[in-house]
Structure formats: structure tokens, C-alpha cells
UniProtKB/TrEMBL annotation:
Tagged with keyword Iron-sulfur: no
tRNA processing listed as a keyword: no
Key words, A-Z: Membrane, Transmembrane, Transmembrane helix
Protein name according to UniProt: Integral membrane protein
SUPFAM superfamilies noted in UniProt: alpha/beta-Hydrolases (SSF53474)
Native species: Streptomyces millisiae
Coiled coil: none
Transmembrane segments: 89-106, 126-144, 180-197, 241-259, 271-295, 315-333, 345-370, 382-403, 440-460, 505-525, 554-571
Amino acid sequence: MSADEITSRPAAAPQELPEPAVELLVHGVGGTTPQAMLEDNRTTRVTGDATASVHRRTDDLDERPWDDGRPLREAYSWSNLTSGNGARALWLLLLPFMIVNLAHWMRPAAAGTRRTQRAFDVQVRLLALSLTVLFTAGACAVALDLVAWQCAGSAACAADSGWLDPLAGEGWWAQPGRRLALGAALPLVLVLLLWGLSHRTWSAYESASPPVRPRPDGEEPAVLGRAGFWYGRGIVARLRASHTAIGLLTLAAALLTATGPHDRGPEGAGALAAAGWVLTGLTAVGWLVVVVQLVRHGRTEEERDDSPEPSLARALPWSALALVLVVVVHTAWSRPEWLTSGRHPAGAGIFPGLMIVQGVLVVGLALTAHRLHRQAPSADRGALAGLGAASVALLACGLGGVLTGGVTEWVADRLASSHDDASGGSIAGPPVVLSWEAAAIPPLLLVVLGLAVAAGLRVVRRRRELAPGVRDRYPDEGCEPQEDRSRSIASAVARAELTDSAPVLVGWVTASCLVLGLGCVAGALTGDPPSEAADSAPAVVSALADACQSTGSWLMGAGVVLMVALGRRAYRDAGARRTIGILWDVGTFWPRAAHPFAPPCYAERAVPDLSWRMGTWIDATGGRLVISGHSQGSVLAAAAVWQLDAATRSRIALLTHGSPLERLYGRWFPVYFGPAALRALHRDVPCWRNLWRATDPIGGPVLVAGADLPPVDRGPLADPLHYGRNLLRPLPEPILGHGDYAADPAFAAERAALFDRLLRGQAPPPLPEQRAAEPV
């Protein structure tokens, strides 16, 4: 139906005719097929494309009134937004970018402190920028330091490696500068690949147009209901330009750091030294411009950010690319007297410097978040006393260091094992701080293991406490208590309760990472790896340090190889692809506001899709709609309802089940899903019911209460539905946990009650005439 047809129709359907009604189903994490959602193999796509679409039963294509025996249902399938393409599995290697992007949305819910909020956002963006520098520096450590500087400069290493023969001896490529210029191809291709990948996903996700719905004057929409919240086209374009430029400038700095000491030395040429100073100055100016751009331009949400990308932002990556090419030519200039030894000069400073900068930013972020936390209402204070964002940001930095160090250590081990150290050709190895990071892995794993043991003991203790009372939850059944049955149900409840302990576990891991990170920086300042620094210590300490370094090096390399193998498997195995997709279902709900190379936000397509479908269907039919969201689908449903105007929302009921709205999102993202936000959602959508089970590790109650608001939660629902066997259920009922809420009779009962409330409630205001949507 065209926009003109919508605007020309009457405001509401004639009252003497029965109003059509529909239930819109939205699936959760992992996805499911429309056929399974609609319980019919014959379905027809009503609207949408191969990526995300709305389906109906083929027999239900005509509009009709509500029939609780066989209600008219639609299914919105969005699983291909996250797990439909096997190539998405390669985003695993960029997991730190996704995690630091989450930190942006974990700001405590404090009002009236714009300056403090701005400081919070700026520090998160700077931390995200440091991760881009870290990944580019890691690529430089492999290509420039280990391969071009160390191995190619060692006759034994180059000879045993074979493929490095052209870079050794007396050939044209044997000069250090030309080896470095050739090695610069790897980090350059990496940055350009991320640039292109970010641009492609930006065109597909951040360009989805949200609906334009009229709002009365003075109506203040919720944060997730703002016109520009799900339209991040402008901010992602600016971030992409800044991060691409900083990656290229990091490569230029690595090359200039290598040539500078030689050119300014007694054997260097004055012209090359002068050119080096000019290029160094231009690189420093580029860094300053990028940082200023990043600080000045943040995210806007009140209106759609359709402004064209600033000319300076467009010019940044191209200018940086031109500068890198000039630096490569300068590096490759003939220097026949130049010889290399030891490690690349940049490695000793950039990695410890990055760790210090990241530590300072994390501490600053923690102080800023704590200040916001103290100013927030007590009910809206998030997890970890407001330090959730700082904890997540620190974990992102730590994971980035592990991935970078893992690749570097793995390459160093391969090069070192390709020749006999006794031949005199041993390479110096990776930067010292990466060896200290490797040595910190075993202690960190011991902490994680201790937390896992503590969690297991808690499950056992809670199971013993809960098991005696399980049978009492089924008073209508006449069977005798069964010890095994009670224990299995109690175990499911105890395991589900571990979700509520997640903040404590994250806090312990974060504190351990902070302490070990400080130790790595202090150890790196000694200039020796752990195995050498402990030579003068007692034999036990020396052996322990050597074991930690070697074990950690192996674990870091094995972890990277495992992630790559998992990504390759996802190309061929649909099950593995779906498992990886679940990670993105949870982690990429939020728009890219801090890091443009993070996996794209599927909600910037899914939320407008749902808002468009609900709004246009009600405009066209004047009917009523129940939107039913399971798990992550309930979050999408809530965000989509917030995008609608009040007249349209008055014809909508919300049914959530297995919903993480309060249990996960409300605690970690209090600004957007805290108690105040959920109460506002209930006021906007009075017809709202939430179903939950005690055995569900993800979903839970939304805890919205008030004298002026009808109840929302119903639960905990019985799980399993029956304790023992009976005439109608002769086989044991399964423990459903997070899945299959529609199998519970409470689901159909609450759905019918919601629709009845829509009909029996006060007549909604007439729908205003909708203006045509703005062109995309």
C-alpha cells in the first residue's frame, strides 16, 4: 500500500464492522524459521527481503477478527541479520571492538549532568581508538618487527624459513628499509580491509530509515524512542574515518621510528633526516586532528543525523593513506650501510605506552561512572556500583592484548623453531611486554577456575536447599516425591540463578586483570621477559616464571588458532554458524557508537522493520495488535513500540516471555532499561504482560509495580508443566528453561486476556492522519 493510500483512508475502521486483529511474533536468540513460529509448513512472505521479513500462514493472508482458537498470526524473522552468513563468524577476531562498544551504553542513569555524561562518552571513544591502534601495532609487530626486522635480518632465520630468501643476502630487498616497506603491506591491507568492511556494513545496516510518526507538542519520547536513536549513519561514518586514519598513522609512525635513529645518526644522510622530521611532524599533526575530531563529534539521537559527512572527516583517511605511501617510499630509499639487530625500536615503547594510556582511561572512566552513579536515583543504579562500563572496557582492552599477543607469540615461536639457536641466528622475539602478558595468562586462568569452582559449589548448595520443596510446587498432583526428579528440577533453578551472580564474577575477573596488567607494565619496564628477569631469583621462582611464560605463550597462540578454526567451520556447518550468531544476537543489539569496526547493529534494521510493520498495519486496517517477543525478541519489541506515537500504541498490547529486559539489560544498561525506563514503557503500553520461569537462565520478571499500573509479571511458571506421570502425560515432561513458552497454557490465556483488555478498555483516540515517510 502506498503512502498516499494510507494518508487518504479514514482515520479509523468503521465501528459497525469487527476490527481485524493480529499477533506479531518476534523470535529470540539463535533464531527460528517462520514455519516453526507459525506451526505451519505453508507460509507466505508478506513483506521484507531475504535478510529480514514478515510471514503469515498461506491460509491467513486475508485480514480477519480475533479468533482465540486460531488467531491470525505473523512472524518476523530476523535471524539472517546476525547468523545467516558464514562470513560473519570472522567477526570473532574483532570481539574486543564489540565489547568496548557495549561500554558506551552502560552509563549510569543520572540526569542533569551533561558535562559528566560527555566526559564519559569521550573516554569510551578514546578507549575504542586505542584498540584500533593496538590491533594495527600488533600487525606491525608481526610484519615489521618479527619478519622484516628480525628474521630477515638474521641469515640463519631467513635461510631456514625459505620464503624469506629474497630479503636476505645482497639482493635489492635485503636493505632494512626495503624489507620494512615490503612488510608494511600486511598492516596496510588489514586497515584497508577493516575500512571497506565497515563501509559495506554501514551501507546495509545504519542506512535503514526509521519511521516518521507524528507526536503531540510537548511529548517527550523515551530514550529508545527518539527519532535518531536507531539511525547511526552520521556517527559511524565519522568514526570510520577517524579509526581508519589512526590505523594508517600508526603504521606510518612504526616505519618512521625505525628509520629515524639511523637517518639522524653519523651514517645517515641529512636530506633523509630532514624528510623524516617533516613526515614525523605531519604524522603527529594527523594524530592530533583525529583525536580532536573524536572528542568534538559525538552521537546525536534527538533527530535523524542525515547531515553530510564533514569534508575534513572524508579527507582524513585519504590524507593518511597518502602520507603512508610517502613514508613507505621514504623508508625504501637506499641505505646500503644500514644494519639491524635486536628488536624493532617502536616495540619497546608503543605497547607499554598503550597499556598505560588504556589504564589511565579506564580509571578515569571508572571515576566518571562512579560520580554519575552517585547522582542517579537509587532504583536506577546499575551493576557493580556503576563500574560496569569501566569493567567491560578493561576486559575489552585485555582481550585485545591477548589476541594481539597471541598472534605475535605464535609467529615468533614459528620463526624461532625454524632454525637452531646454536647457529647464532636466534631472533630476539616479540616485544617484552607481550611476553609479560603471556606470563599473566596462567594466573588469570587460575582465578577464572576458582570462580567456576565457587559457582559449582553454589549450585550444589542451592540444589540441596531447593530439592525438598520442589514437590510442593505441584499441589494438584497425587504422585509421591521422587528424589531424582526433584534434584533435576532444583539443579535447573540453581543454575539459572547464577545469572544474577554475573556482576560479582565480572568484578573479580576485572580486578584480576587490573592487577596483572599493572604487573605486566612494571615487568616490561625492566627490559627483560619474565624468564630472564627471574634468573637471579630462587630456582623455584625462576622455574615458575619460565613455565608461566611458555604456557601462556602457547595458550595465547592456541586461542587465536581456535577462534580462526571456529570461524572456518562456520562456513560449512550451519550449527556452528548459529552458535556464533547467538553471540551477535546478544552483543550487537546496540548501535555502533564507540567503534566503527565492531560487528554491525542488527537492531538498526530490525527495530525500524517492526515499527514500520506495526504502524502501517494499524494505519491501513484500524485494527489491534499483540506483539509477542521471546528472549531478545522482547527487547526488539519494546524498542519498536517506543518508536510509535501514542495513538498507535493505544492499539497495541505487549506480551514478553523469557525476557532479559530487567535481569540483564536493566542492570547493565540502566539508562535505557532501568526501573524508570520500564515504568515509562508500562505507562506507554498499559496492556503488557511478562511470563517467566525460575528455571530460565536468561529471562526473568521485569519488576514493574505501582498503584497506578496494572501488574506485568506472571510467574514463575511451572517448569516442567507436570511433576510426575498422569493419564494425559504418561511420559516425563521436559524442563523447558528458556525455550518453548508457547507450550504453557498460560501463554494462550495471557494472550487472550491482553486482546480482551484492548477491546474492553477505554476507546483509544482516533488515529491521526499519517504523513508520507521521508524518502530514504
